[in-house]
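Key idea: predict the complex, not the pieces.
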Amino acid sequence: MSVLEAHDLSIRFGGVQANLDVSIAVGELEIVGVIGPNGAGKTTLFNMITGFYTPDSGRIVYRDTEITGMAVHERAALGLARTFQNVGLVKGATVRDNLVTAQYLQADYGTLSGMLGSRHSRAGERQLRARADTLADMLGLGDLLDTQVAGLPYGTLKRVEIATVLATDPEVLLLDEPSSGMGPEEAHQLGDTLLTLRDEFELSIVMIEHHVPLVVRVCDYVYCLDFGQMLTHGLPHDVRSHPQVVAAYLGEDPEPEVLALEAQLESLVETD
Amino acid sequence: MVPATVEPAATAGRHRPSAAGWGLRGVVWAALAYLVLVFPLGRPATTVILYTTAVCYGIVALSLNVLLGYVGQISLGHQAFVGVGAFTSAYVVTEQGQSFWVGVLAAAAIGGGQALVLGGVSLRVRGLYFALITLSYGLVAQDNIFQIERLTGGGAGQPAPKPQGFETEWRYYYLCVGFLAVVLYLDWRMMRSKSGRALLALRENPRVAATFGINVRLATLFAFVVSGVFAGLGGALIAHNDTFVSPDPWNFNLALVFVIMTVVGGLRSRPGLVIGGAFFALLPYLIEQIPGFDSLLEAIPAPRDLSPLIAPLVIGPLLLIVNLIRFPGGIGQQLRPITRWLAGHRFDLHDRGLKEVQITDVRA
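Result:
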């Protein structure tokens, strides 16, 4: 039984068909990888699932509810959380403030109560801060709680970002290139972290990822996009060795005509 | 997980001042309390009216800061928001025969209500376009709404008597200081609750705020309403301080002064905003105190009926330029080492705050 399903999503930006009939399904407690070369439409798919783009056609279903037309914050309230390729954090604030801000929906007091500083709202604030501390400790960020986010190294930012999306109390986590900016060692540890978090928070995870060893190790299922279309999908090992996937990543041998054209161009440059 | 490779913040572990440290802070606090609470007692009534205006401008600066500082939207029609409060309270008290308290409540409510309506329509757009809409609203209000004789008394104006028990200038001054304290408290609590944090998050990155479950448009509208309530309250207090309200002062010049004093005071810095507001309220008066200023005025072939706001409108932009180039956090940021010290932290001359204001803050 799937937690999240996307059916035949298509979206076009001007002359570019960014996604064409893309379908994915994410099962309970599954980790699903989305791979593909740059510009394949992976982030576009995320943007449609999380509500930043409205697909031209297709449906998105979350736990039997159609969410295709819902606003971003409504989907967040349902338990859909995401990270961003370029780190989605409030950079001017501290790590703690980010973790507390992300718990916007968990705050159990009203706006007016908060403005008047009622006892109830203060107690609620203490709870949020305590949970921020717990999450920071879990991700090894305990020492950085009072540090401003802007200025932290990229790899650390990625961890802070994962902590903040966990703070939103998600059921499905969409991670956009979580290992970017990390070395192989760090990426390996990220894999462990993701597996632990999946079990501890009972998450389903969808991740866009370029680091193939990480994908193969943690993902239960992999989708490969190319030029906005689904190239193939299946178990990680099968997808990795799929000839079309290899071709899409490494590039096919250029056609003879292209080679001829290139030669012509070079000769032109030389005669100039 | 990878051990953190970054140095933790230097301010880990709260600083505990010594007894002497507290004593010294106490002296400064006492001096400030003296300046605000005792000093006006010995001043003539006409001067105390000025001080009260200064306090009210502090409230207006805090009002504008909610928009400009917290959500990064600029209102160029804030004179209308404040003016509506002034006229509402004068109308309720003079025409309806209600008490000052009802008038102030009505002013705050109408102030919030107009923001709700205007924001509900216009907050679909942001930045420069939002500024344009508020600008148009301000002009429509000053030229049309404020001229409706049945509501505002038209050109003749409307009396706005001081409240019972606060008839003297001094008592009314303390009343306004009390209102300022209430606004400061509400602002402080708001920024320490989920609503305030939502505003800061959406100013910096609306997309991230939305993924945190924040309804960006609703939160922005909320900020606009809070700003409107504060503005309405400030307007009502100004009206009863002048004991009279006429449409003339509520023009675009005033809106400009409001924006300038907010930015120069320092976005997101409560002490800076209050000081900025007070400074610009007192500026026309302070200018006159400069020896030889009168003869200088005589010497220049300018029309005799200069705008009363000429000083703020000349000095303000100059300060704004210095501000934006050298001290984007305004007065508040410059005072931060002192204000932090007063709050019991270690004195750190280089402390300019985490949420350092940047010029890009005002995205208009």
